[in-house]
């Protein structure tokens, strides 16, 4: 988003930017919920995210989401994943694919041998 010409022309800041409004991520997710057909795949790859607080409303506004990519961001801890978990009574995630390749916590865990690598 940081390199998008429209965002730059309008002087908007992507959700993880220090000057961005704190609720911009939630606003973008709410806007995405109005799309037709319903959003099933979302990629926020290559945006420099360090934490996932901006995505705490994900399952509320995008309940049909099945595929989610945070590839090539800068997520520091697996604890950040609780922000994207379905929470609350009656909420159940339809998420079947979560891509976390090239994030700090995953790369560190691979080097340390604390996670297994899926092999087809």
Explain what the structure shows.
- The chain is α/β, with parallel strands linked by helices.
- It has one domain: Leucine-rich repeat, LRR (right-handed beta-alpha superhelix) (Alpha-Beta Horseshoe), CATH 3.80.10.10.
- Helices cover 22% and strands 8% of the residues.
- It has a three-stranded parallel β-sheet with strand order 1-2-3, with no helix packed on it.
- Strand 1, helix 3 and strand 2 form a beta-alpha-beta unit.
- It is globular.
- It starts with a helix and ends in an 8-residue tail after the last helix.
Distance between the termini: 33 Å
Radius of gyration: 15 Å
Uncertain residue segments: none
Q: CATH superfamily assignment?
A: Ribonuclease Inhibitor
Mean pLDDT: 83
In helices, the fraction of residues equals: 10-25%
Tell me what portion of residues adopts beta-strand conformation. 5-15%
Task: Return the string of H and E elements.
Answer: HHEHEEH
- Total discrete domains: 1
CATH topology name, in short, is: Leucine-rich repeat, LRR (right-handed beta-alpha superhelix)
Query: What global shape is seen?
Result: globular
Multimeric state of these chains?
Answer: single chain
The major beta sheet can be summarized as: 3 strands, parallel
Count the helices. How many? Answer: 4
Number of beta strands: 3
For the largest sheet, list the strands in their spatial order: 1-2-3
Question: Based on the structure given, which CATH architecture is correct?
Answer: Alpha-Beta Horseshoe
Secondary structural class: alpha/beta
- The CATH class is Alpha Beta
